[in-house]
Design brief:
Elements lengths: L27 H4 L16 H8 L69 E2 L5 E2 L2 H39 L5 H24 L7 H22 L9 H16 L3 H22 L2 H10 L5 H51 L4 H4 L8 H9 L38 H7 L6 H10 L7 H11 L5 H10 L12 H18 L6 H7 L24 H11 L2 H10 L9 H14 L31 H11 L5 H4 L3 H13 L4 H5 L5 H13 L4 H16 L10 H5 L3 H13 L8 H16 L11 H11 L5 H8 L3 H10 L20 E5 L1 H6 L5 H21 L10 E5 L1 H4 L3 H6 L7 E7 L4 E8 L3 H7 L3 E4 L3 H5 L7 E2 L4 H4 L2 H6 L3 H6 L2 E7 L6 H16 L3 E9 L2 H9 L1 H4 L6 E2 L5 E4 L2 E9 L3 H11 L7 E3 L5 E3 L9 E2 L6 E8 L14 E10 L11 H12 L2 E4 L1 H4 L3 E3 H6 L5 H16 L11 H23 L10 H13 L10 H8 L8 H4 L8 H27 L6 E4 L5 E4 L3 E2 L9 E2 L1 H10 L4 E4 ...
Helix pairs in contact: 3-4, 3-5, 3-6, 4-5, 5-6, 5-7, 6-7, 6-9, 7-9, 9-11, 13-14, 13-20, 14-16, 15-16, 16-17, 16-20, 16-26, 17-18, 20-23, 23-26, 25-29, 29-30, 30-31, 30-32, 31-34, 32-34, 42-56, 49-55, 50-52, 50-54, 51-54, 52-54
Length: about 1450
């Protein structure tokens, strides 16, 4: 019964308790058949007084289909028309005569509208300005319904029109300047109005067809009177013209008389003609005004012609507006007709009735529509109660860009943006629902129709589900179809309806639901003295109805602020209805958002990452894109806060708490933090109320009542949930662990009142297991625990007593260290086996095996005491434990494994033995689970923990599986050439590790030809930095000769391209890494020469790289000049990626010209410029959690971050020109501005000027702008550093200005000061002035003093010299920095990897912006002869965000 309580994902909310596998019941498919289309019949709108009477139950609705007082259909409140559900079952198939098309609706054209959702039905439209139904019977029925509505409003319309006409009549008849004949015309017009009032009202009757004609004449008279008024009135306002009154008269007539579109057009032409004719005939005041203004410059006829065109244009706008309103009315009517037609089909299917009886389902359905339904009625099946509801019909309007399949890349999810574009919720109707929901005259059917007409989000289940359902029934993350998830949502909606009506018929509907006619089912007598587990479903309903303590639910409704007497209850109910309508839409992966860069990180999700947790995904959209959820956007701010609170702030799963499934820290720490922050108690109770309604509808049978709670939950279990809700309020005064311990004791007393609460070391484990197992006899669980071997008992006692809270332990068992484990679905595992003590022993042993394996993957550490790791066993809990242990014969041999997904999650799954090779090669952390009980009982407790295979054993496992000849596998595999220069900066090392990991994930044999440049000491450094991987038994298997190694399915051949810079490289490594012992000798010239000792890795001469074809080349180091024929050995290459640009460190001039000419003959060349690679930076979480990096690499990245932030380049004049110094500082300033915002939450530009920082920055500028420095490329750097939105200084555009001139120097000093100020300010604020940068010591006199751990030694003289660098790195690691240092070379590796999947796209399918390289970096560097040798392009990457790289790179 408690299985549903552990169905969520992660530590977010308990709404996932609704998750449960689809039943094996053979009738489940039939139960899920859909009836397409609700009955949406537009009803008459009531006056506010009548609506209030209905709200208080004093007045019954006038129409059974739509209650009186329902809000009038408007453009903003149009009910949606859905796409056709994918793959409907036979019982749900729509007849051809009435089946809506699957396309979104466009405006009907002049001919048949093939894009209309009504195409192919009797509700199809024809005509544009004056639309009509193609079917004559449908048109006649619509006009009759429209006249019926107008008849109810007829007197009000006439009175209103008379009031508007009184103004011109009064002006005409009583104006002092009016002539006698004009006065007579005015009174004649009044008499005509009086005479036409009665025919107008009579013609609005349901049986009359002359309303539009009479109303048109009525409106024309008003126009004529208005024309006379303007012509003969003695007007003092000279700008008054006849057109104003004529347009006003037409607008009033169209708005209040609501004549048809066709008659509107007729009125327009008659009104324009009459106005011009009257004006000309009367030689009006207008003529004199025109003559006075133009002074003979224009004729009166021309002026009247212009006036007539203006009136005609405004009239056309009025006609189009009326046409749009009429289209809305026609669509609404068509929805109702089609819906009732399908209800007629259902009646024909479920009951053996004649065709004549089928046609009586709705008197308003034309025979042309009902007849095909009746004719296609199959033979009646066995009568079975239908418990599902129809889907919403969706009308998406006419916007072409909203059709599915049109490419749309708008954030955060294209499908969500397209589906919700221009959609609105019917807030008038939603408020009306909240007012009526307790009324006895407000039926369930009407509530359903109001729901699907009000909440556009309900259509998302079919927008997103249609495309996925064709591929798989598992369309959503809960494991069921989107169609079933919609039924769950409607089940939750109905539960809200019933829980707010507990004082009338709510309890009855809660237990029994409704019949096929949506009428309440009468309660049946309960069966006394029968166990819940032995009751039939009907007996459970009766028992629940009679014995449930309904007061618990009523109190919850009251605490949540939804009771009738609660202040603001209407707004609260509206919020609850809105929340229920969209709370599960993010279970559909196609709707889940991608975190945008400006919002990253979001709850642990970095930029470009899709949020798979459906609750966090919904929270993200509500926080940052609320307009995509119309039913959330329109709520009041206080209600928005409450709805948002229910989705992600607490991250609390109620099922975990009630069943003691999780350790205290994992489920209560966030909850306690929210409560301490001053959370509104009503919002917390709204969260619990929503959780109850969500769980109640989890069976996806809305008309079946709250089946999840009534049929699946023992009342004692449900009562425990309700009882625990107010219990949690004590968390404000207790620690998480203390509260859980008190709760365990209280539940023990309730379940075992005659047993003493245990107090020994096993107490916590025993009490948690009792609550998890939910056995009918709780002592059976205790006995099963005591029957376990000592090893199993010890495992449970220890692991179940870890708290997941730093410094907190249970009083009964003080177990320290962590991480603690939350075995997700462990209650379901035990409940599946709680029928006997033997079954419980098997379940407990299975749980022990999982816990032991988890501890092997996550070793115990005091540092991890505050962490909780979630182990998902959803696949395991669905299996019978006897089957799991005995491993029955299968066609394919499989084993159970526990796989570490990340630092906080793991999964137990069934894995084919052959698939283990892939895990070996990926370097995944996992354990094979051995559930055999014999070994455990023999005391070999850890024998079930199969150790990870040795890296040497896993190397080439997949290659050997594919072929017995490894060499053949690699010869026929993929091949990449990489030029690199590994050194103490570790950027090349990071890129190389990323490439190996990416290629191993592919599982395809790949050869990497790795060329180290300059010196053999780079291999010595490589052996040092990767010593753990090259060690015996390490991840990399060194081949014979020590010039190649294999990592999984990747073979790396190493080569060396020597250069004249070898002595410089040796000195650099010795200086930066003095602890590394290099194998060196001395040459005859006395220079150090590296030695390649036997048994150590090294590289052959790179001219020995084998010939053949390449997939790509990566140039991440300067290629030594001289041997340019090297590239001619390759037959083909798809692309060459160069990190940098000509003149940079990887493309030194002038040798680069020859290298480019040689490469250009082979393949296209793409420069990955700093404008791109500098923007791609390592996310902090990637650095911290990277399993492939050792501590040296991680420390190097943090040290580089410190350099970018705090260490300003202090170069001697000989090596540091103005251009270089400015370029380095500009790049660092961009990073520092981001880091300043990450830590402080504010922009540097918004921070007041700090004078002390300004003095330091100015001193730096003075040191680095002296005349003894060469200007370098200062003008180009100033251009690049200038703001794009600011005009460039004219001096930068004047080619005659010298780089060393005073004006350029002043610009350089100004720009240098700005960027250095940003860097120094960031360093001071986030590091040096941090409270954490303080230590207490003792001065020379023995007194206590406070000093800084780190800082500048002499900031006014040198900004590169800092003390306490290690302490500074520790401070950096504690800061909430989102991204650290640039990834540079990693970008090239990403391109090379993705190019394997996209060989025809030079950017590897990353969506990069590529442009032809400029002459000074592309083809302009080559001679005409060199250009003729190849047609390959030379491209480069301009400035861009690089989001595509983040999406597939090391950060996804």
């Amino acid at each position: 019964a408690m299985e549903a309580c552990c169905c969520g994902h992660g530590t977010v909310t308990p709404r996932d308790l609704s998750r449960e596998e689809e039943r094996d019941d053979p009738s489940s498919t039939e139960r899920m058949d859909l009836v397409v289309g609700p009955k949406l019949n537009p009803g008459p709108a009531l006056r506010p007084s009548e609506a209030q009477d209905i709200a208080h139950g004093n007045l019954a609705p006038s129409c059974p289909s739509v209650p009186a007082g329902a809000p009038k259909t408007s453009e903003e409140a149009m009910p949606a028309l859905p796409p056709v559900p994918a793959e409907p079952t036979a019982a749900a198939e729509i007849p051809p005569a009435t089946k809506p098309a699957g396309k979104p609706a466009d405006l009907p054209g002049s001919q048949k509208d093939t894009d209309s959702p009504f195409a192919g039905t009797s509700a199809e439209f024809q005509g544009w300005l004056a639309p009509t139904f193609l079917d004559a019977q449908m048109e006649a029925a619509f006009q009759a319904r429209r006249r019926e509505l107008l008849f109810q409003q007829g007197p009000l319309v006439v009175i209103t029109m008379a009031a508007f006409s009184f103004i011109p009549l009064f002006a005409l008849g009583f104006s002092g300047g009016a002539e006698a004949w004009a006065i007579r015309m005015g009174w004649l017009g009044a008499a005509a109005y009086a005479l036409l009032c009665w025919p107008l009202v009579r013609c609005a009757g349901p049986s009359s067809r002359g309303y539009d004609t009479v109303a048109t004449v009525y409106a024309l008279i008003l126009v004529v009177i208005s024309s006379f008024t303007s012509q003969k009135l003695n007007i003092r306002l000279m700008e008054a013209r006849s057109g104003i009154l004529v347009c006003g008269a037409m607008g009033i007539s169209v708005a209040f008389l609501q004549i048809s579109s066709g008659h509107c057009i007729v009125l327009l032409h008659l009104a324009v003609g009459a106005s011009i004719a009257i004006s000309v005939a009367c030689e009006s005041l207008d003529q004199r005004l025109v003559e006075g203004v133009t002074k003979g410059g224009g004729s009166f006829a021309e002026w009247e012609l212009v006036n007539g065109l203006i009136i005609y244009s405004i009239g056309l706008i009025l006609c189009c507006g009326r046409r749009s309103t009429e289209m809305q009315e026609r669509c609404t009517y068509a929805i109702g007709v089609l819906s009732r037609a399908h209800l007629a089909e259902d009646a024909a299917v479920e009951k053996p009735v004649a065709k004549e009886e089928v046609s009586k389902v709705s008197e308003e359905v034309p025979k042309a529509i009902v007849a095909p339904v009746a004719e296609q009625a199959p033979a009646p099946p066995e009568k079975k109660r239908k418990t599902t509801v129809p889907p919403p019909l969706e009308h998406k309007g006419s916007n072409l860009h909203r059709k599915l399949g049109v490419k749309d890349s708008r954030a955060p999810n294209p499908l969500l943006v397209r589906s919700m574009s221009d959609r609105t919720s019917d807030w008038e109707r939603i408020r009306w629902m909240a007012l009526q929901i307790r009324s006895p005259t407000y039926p369930l059917r009407q509530f359903f129709e109001d729901c699907i007409a009000s909440f556009p989000e309900l259509s998302l289940f079919f927008d997103a589900g249609t495309s996925t359902a064709k591929k798989s029934k598992q369309a959503v993350s809960s494991g069921i179809s989107a169609e079933a998830e919609y039924q769950r949502t409607m089940g939750a909606m109905f539960t809200v309806y019933w829980m707010l009506r507990l004082d009338t018929d709510g309890a009855q509907g809660f237990c029994y639901g409704a019949d096929e006619n949506w009428a309440p089912i009468e309660a049946q007598p309960a069966v006394p003295n029968k166990s819940f587990f032995k009751m039939t479903p009907d007996e459970k309903r009766s028992s629940f109805y009679k014995t449930m303590d309904w007061k618990l639910l009523t109190e919850l409704v009251t605490r949540a602020g939804c009771a009738a007497h609660s202040p603001g209850s209407i707004e609260r109910i509206m919020a609850l209805l809105c929340l229920t309508s969209f709370h599960d839409i993010m279970k559909m992966p196609m709707l889940q958002p991608i975190v945008q860069p400006e919002h990253a990180p979001y709850n642990g999700y970095e930029a470009g990452v899709r949020i798979h947790d459906h609750d966090l995904a919904l929270s993200y959209v509500m926080e940052h894109f609320p307009a995509l959820l119309p039913s959330y956007m329109g709520l009041e701010p206080k209600q928005k806060q409450g709805v948002l609170f229910t989705q992600g702030k607490m991250q609390f799963n109620h099922g975990w708490f009630v069943q003691a499934e999780a350790p205290p820290g994992g489920m209560l720490s966030k909850f306690k933090a929210v409560m301490e922050a001053g959370a509104d108690q009503a919002d917390i109770d709204l969260y619990f109320l929503h959780w109850i309604t969500d769980l109640a509808g989890a069976e996806a049978t809305p008309l079946g009542g709250a089946e999840k709670l009534v049929l699946k939950f023992n009342q004692d279990v449900l009562a425990s949930f309700l009882w625990s809700m107010p219990f949690l309020s004590r968390l404000a005064n207790l620690s998480e662990t203390r509260l859980v311990e008190e709760y365990l004791c209280a539940r023990w007393r309730a379940l075992l009142p005659n047993e003493q609460v245990p107090s020994d070391a096993s107490a916590i484990a025993v009490m948690r297991l009792v609550l998890m197992a939910q056995a009918e006899h709780p002592m059976t669980v205790v006995e099963a625990f005591r029957a376990l071997p000592d090893s199993d008992q010890s495992c449970l006692v220890t692991e179940l007593a870890r708290t997941g809270c730093v410094g907190q332990t249970f009083e009964r068992n003080t177990v320290c260290g962590g991480p603690a484990f939350l075995v997700y679905y462990s209650p379901a595992l035990l409940q599946r086996n709680n029928g006997s003590q033997q079954g419980l022993e098997t379940g407990l042993h299975t749980l022990c095996v999982v816990l032991r394996a988890a501890r092997a993957v996550w070793p115990m550490s005091l540092k991890s005491e505050g962490n909780t790791v979630i182990i998902q066993i959803g696949e395991l809990k669905s299996q019978n434990c006897d089957v799991v242990i005995r491993s029955p014969d299968n066609e394919v041999r499989s084993v159970w494994i526990l796989l570490r997904n990340n630092d906080n999650e793991g999964t137990v799954s069934l894995c084919r033995a052959g698939d283990l090779n892939a895990l070996y090669m990926e370097g995944a952390l996992f354990r094979v689970l051995d559930f055999s009980r014999e070994k455990s009982e023999a005391g070999a407790n850890h024998s079930a923990l199969a150790a990870s295979p040795a890296p040497a054993e896993r190397a080439s496992a997949k290659v050997r599986a594919e072929t017995t000849d490894e060499g053949s596998a690699f010869r026929n595999g993929r091949r990449i050439l990489v030029f690199t220069d590994m050194s103490t900066e570790c950027d090349d090392e990071c890129a190389f590790l990323w490439l190996l990991a990416a290629l191993n994930r592919r599982g395809t044999p790949t050869t990497v030809e790795l060329v180290q440049t300059d010196s053999h000491v780079r291999f010595q450094w490589m052996a040092h930095i990767f010593s753990d991987k090259f060690a015996p038994g390490g991840d990399w298997e060194v081949k014979e000769g020590c010039c190649s190694f294999q990592d999984g399915n990747v073979l790396v051949n190493m080569y060396l391209a020597r250069s004249q810079h070898e002595p410089t490289i040796i000195r650099d490594i010795q200086k930066k890494a003095p602890h590394v012992e290099l194998d060196l000798d001395t040459s005859q010239e006395g220079k150090p020469v590296p030695i390649w000792k036997p048994g150590t890795i090294g590289g052959k001469d790179y001219m020995l790289v084998p010939k053949g074809s390449l997939d790509s080349i990566v140039v991440a180091a300067a290629i030594p000049g001289g041997n340019y024929d090297f590239f001619q050995r390759f037959d083909e290459c798809k692309c060459i990626y160069v990190v940098g640009t000509p003149g940079g460190i990887n493309c030194p001039m002038p040798s680069w010209k020859d290298v480019l000419a040689a490469m250009h003959r082979l393949a296209p060349v793409v420069y990955l410029t700093p404008q791109l690679t500098r923007t791609i930076r390592f996310p902090r979480n990637y650095v911290v959690t990277n399993m492939y990096w050792n501590e040296t690499i991680k420390h190097t990245v943090w040290d580089a971050t410190l350099t970018f932030m705090a260490r300003r380049p202090e170069l001697v004049p000989k090596s540091g020109n103005w251009g270089l110094i400015l370029r380095l500082n500009v790049a660092n300033a961009l990073f520092c501005a981001d880091w300043y915002a990450d830590v402080t939450g504010t922009s540097v530009s918004d921070t007041p000027r700090d004078e002390s920082v300004a003095r330091i920055a100015q001193a730096y500028v003075d040191r680095n702008s002296t005349r003894d420095r060469d200007p370098g490329a200062i003008i180009d750097e100033l251009k690049a550093a200038s703001q794009p939105d600011r005009p460039k200084n004219p001096a930068l555009l004047d080619e005659s200005v010298s780089p060393s001139s005073d004006v350029i120097r002043d610009l350089y000093r100004e720009q240098l000061f700005e960027v250095v100020y940003i860097c120094v300010l960031t360093t001071e604020v986030v590091l040096w002035r941090s409270k954490a940068n303080r230590k207490v010591g003792v001065d020379e006199g023995g007194f206590e003093k406070v000093s800084s751990k780190c800082g500048y030694n002499e900031p006014m003289k040198n900004l590169s010299d800092i003390y306490g660098a290690e302490d500074a790195i520790v401070l950096l690691q504690r800061l909430p920095l989102r991204r650290l240092t640039p990834a540079y070379d990693v970008v090239a590796m990403i391109c090379a990897d993705t190019a394997l999947d996209h060989p025809d796209e030079l950017d590897g399918g990353l969506g990069l912006l590529l442009e032809n390289a400029r002459e000074d970096m592309g083809l302009g560097m080559l001679s005409e002869e060199e250009q003729r040798l190849s047609n390959h392009p030379v491209l480069y990457t301009p400035a861009q965000a690089g989001d595509g790289v983040y999406a597939v790179g090391p950060f996804s």
